[in-house]
Each structure stands twice: as C-alpha cells, then as structure tokens.
Amino acid sequence: MSIPIRTTTSTIATPKKPSWHRKEYYTAWVYTAPALILLLIFLIIPFFIAIYFSFTNERLVSGSLPTYFVGLGNFKQMLEDGSLHRALLNNSLFGLIVVPVQTSLALFLAILINRKFRGVAVFRTIYFSPVVAPLVVVAVVWSFLYNPGQGLINEFIKAISFGHLGPYDWLSNPGLALPAIMLLSIWQGVGFQMVVYLVGLQGIPESLYEAARVDGAGSWQKFWHITLPQLRNTTIFVLIATTILSFKLYTQVEVMTQGGPENATATVVWYMVHESIHNVRVGYASAVAVVFFLIVLMRVIPVLRSVVVTEEREM
User: Fold this and answer.
1) How many angstroms separate the Cα of 187 from the Cα of each of 79, 81, 93, 130, 291?
2) What gap in Å lies between CA 283 and CA 107, rounded to an integer?
3) Which one, out of 52, 186, 252, 268, has a CA that is 20 to 30 A from the CA of 202?
4) d(Cα 249, Cα 94) in Å, to the nearest integer?
5) Which of 242, 239, 228, 248 lies closest to 303 in space, CA to CA?
6) 119 versus 20: which is more confidently predicted?
7) What is 188-253 written as a DSSP string?
8) How far is CA 246 from CA 75, 94, 151, 189, in A?
9) Contact predicate 286/53, CB 8 Å
10) Is residue 106 within 8 Å of residue 194, measured between CB atoms?
11) Do the beta carbons of residue 15 and residue 248 sit within 8 Å?
12) What pTM was estimated for this model as a whole?
C-alpha cells in the first residue's frame, strides 16, 4: 500500500523595499511637484493651446469675427510671408555669428581668470555683472552708447581714427543695426558661459597638466590635448544653451529698434509678439510658434544625438 505524498509549492516572498527607500521616493516627488506643476501650467499646456490655435483664425480680441477652423491656412500663409522669412534669416545670422564668438570669448575669459592672482574675484564679478543686470536696462544704456550725436562708441571711433571715421547711425542703418545688437548680446551674455567654463576648468585634474609638463608639452599642446577634450561636455552644454538663447532674441530688438529699420533686426520671437498683440492675429502667431519650435528642435536634436553616440563609443 503506497502512501500518497502531497507536494506543496512554497512561494518565496519578494523582499519589500525598506521604508526609508519609500520615504525618499515620496520626498523626491514632493520636492519635484512644484516645478512640474509650473512647467505644466506655463509651458506644456500653452504649447498644446498654441497647436490648437494654429489651425484657427483666433484673434486677440474676439469682436464681430468668430473663431473658426482654417486648417493649414496659417501654415500656407507662412510660405508667402516675406517679413517672416527675413526674421528667420536674421535669427540664423545672429546665431551663426554670436554663438561661436560668444563661446570662444567665454572660454578665453575663463582660462584668463582661472589663475591665482590678487584681485581675480574682482575680474570675475566685472565679467559676470552684465548677466545679472536687467536686459531692458542694458538695452537702454547701449541705445545711448550708439547715439549718433553724443554716443561714446562714435566718440571712441572718432578718437582712434583721428576723426576720419564716424559718426555712424548704428540703430537706423539697415546694415549696422543687427551687428550692433550682436555686439550688445555678446557683451551681455558672455559672463554666463564664462562661469560655466570656469566650473569645467576647475574640474580638470591637475595631475594631467603635471604629466604633460614632465613630457615637455607647451601651453598650446596642453590646451589642445588636455583642456579642450576635458571640456567637451561643457562646450556642448554652452553651445546648446547659447543657441537656444539666440533663437529667443526679443528684448534688445523691442527696446532698441522695434524690428527696424526695414525689418533688418526683426526676429521670429519679436515677429510672433508683433503679430499676436499689434495685429491681434493670435492664430497666425501660434502657427509661427509651432513651426519655430520644430526648427529649434531640429537644430538641437542632432547635437544631443552626437553626444549620446560619443558616450556609447567611449563606454
């Protein structure tokens, strides 16, 4: 007589996460929630509203014209809008010149003040002070500097040229207005990139420079083979941030030239504000905003993709 053997399967209980892990998890969400809520209210929701408005004839003031669906009408109109094309060209020229010049100057200044000498903190403060100054105030001050009659810039040019050059009407000349805003933007924003580079320079191990010094490497060789490779991620961040800021150019244009003369300084952001507020064409301005967002995204994504590919190759 065989005795049946009953087999029982025992389930192994998965260990529960410690309570302190759950506490950290919920604490992180609590601290992150305010920023996420603000992003949702002021960035994500308005963007989807802009997408909806881009397919309508929405006006800033409703009046007697009701809102109705226009399909791709706003986007078709953009193809024939000469003012918008000029604004895109101005933005492209601004970015092509300001981004590399500002980045190179920021790296030069960071290397210059990344040395131990008396008064270095004063120079760091001087270079960074334009960044914390209100941009509207900076634009007003530079408008006085560009004044063709008594502006200091024209007086300086006349002094160094012994009266052979100048005065120039910087903000009323179609060929000089955009370069004048470029000069202001480089001066005002270079301090931020300088601080970012300064942090990157201070993170480079000194042992690398000591080893290069023992091998007889010169200053240029140390810069090319140690400093630049070690600042690769910093440079990528600076280039992306500066590119995005160059596309957001608005305050200087509004304060100094209002897009003139002859649309020589009009930018896409300024044009969007002008169309939505002055011409009360919210629907058309929303379409411009959506397309402009995609353009900026196409500029940034290849850079980020190259970073990811490079990181995967190095791993």
Assistant:
1) 35, 32, 17, 8, 30
2) 42
3) 186
4) 9
5) 239
6) 119
7) HHHHHHHHHHHHHHHTS-HHHHHHHHHTT--HHHHIIIIIHHHTHHHHHHHHHHHHHHHHT--HHH
8) 24, 7, 26, 10
9) yes
10) yes
11) no
12) 0.84
**Distance from C-alpha of 163 to C-alpha of 88, rounded to nearest angstrom:** 37
Tokens 């408005």 correspond to what residue? Answer: 53
59, β-bridge pairs: 281
Tokens at 10, concatenated: 């025992």
Residue-range domain boundaries for the chain:
81-314
Q: For the chain, what percent of residues have pLDDT higher than 90?
A: 54
Q: Which of 47, 84, 74 minimizes the C-alpha distance to 267?
A: 84
| Amino acid symbol at 268 | V
- For the record, the structure tokens of 45 come out as 């929701």
CA distance linking residue 220 with residue 111, whole number of Å: 12
Q: How many residues does the chain have?
A: 315
- The domain defined by 81-314 folds into MetI-like fold (1.10.3720)
Radius of gyration of the chain (CA): 28
pLDDT at res. 297:
87
Q: Integer distance in angstroms from the first to the last C-alpha of the chain?
A: 66
* Residue 294 structure tokens: 């995609």
| CB atoms near residue 135 (< 10 Å) | 17
Per-residue confidence (pLDDT) for residue 64, from 0 to 100: 59
Confidence category of residue 62, pLDDT binned at 50, 70, 90: low
d(CA 28, CA 22): 10
CA torsion sign for 112, 117, 121, 122 is negative
Place of tokens 């100054």: 133
**Residue 307: Cβ within 10 Å count:** 15
